[in-house]
Amino acid sequence: MSEAEQTLSIIKPDAVERNLTEKIKDIFTQNNLKIKDSKKIHITKDEAAEFYKVHQAKPFYNELCSYLSSGPIVAMILEGKDAVILNRKIMGATDPKNAEDNTIRKLFGISIDKNSVHGSDSAENAKKEIDFFFKN
Ligand code: UDP
Ligand code: MG
Known about the structure:
Blueprint: E1 4-11, H1 13-17, H2 21-30, E2 34-41, H3 45-51, H4 61-68, E3 73-81, H5 83-91, H6 104-108, E4 117-119, H7 123-134
Antiparallel strand pairs: 1-3, 1-4, 2-3
Helix pairs in contact: 3-4
Bound molecules: uridine-5'-diphosphate and magnesium ion (MG).
Uridine-5'-diphosphate binds at residues 55, 60, 64, 94, 112-113, 115, 118, 121.
């Protein structure tokens, strides 16, 4: 019997602003991911910089942090079998242009930066990212 795993998902400002939150949540639940917790928040640029620290050497880091802090986001804990990989599959490729049909980024993403969702890339990072938003 396989154990349920958790991952962190974020609905990014471009999608929250276009009222896509419920549509995106429905896609997760229809694909066997339970939403265990959810909160709508508006983080500061410093908080975004901390969250995306792994990307600090990248040329897009500053814009990425400005963007994630530019408006409300919805952070969620998703749970299910192989949740990390399953969520990445449901999200689609980073650049919506390269995302497969029916993925969230193909359906709703605007560009490589405004790509509607974040998802943890490993179980280890999922734990850290869940703590970042949901501890305390
Ligand atoms: N990003 C960007 N330009 C790039 C690559 C990435 O603006 O050339 C942004 C994009 O919003 C992406 C985030 O940085 O979602 C984190 O990048 P990562 O490579 O981790 O992609 P993801 O895991 O989100 O698919
Ligand atoms: Mg990533």
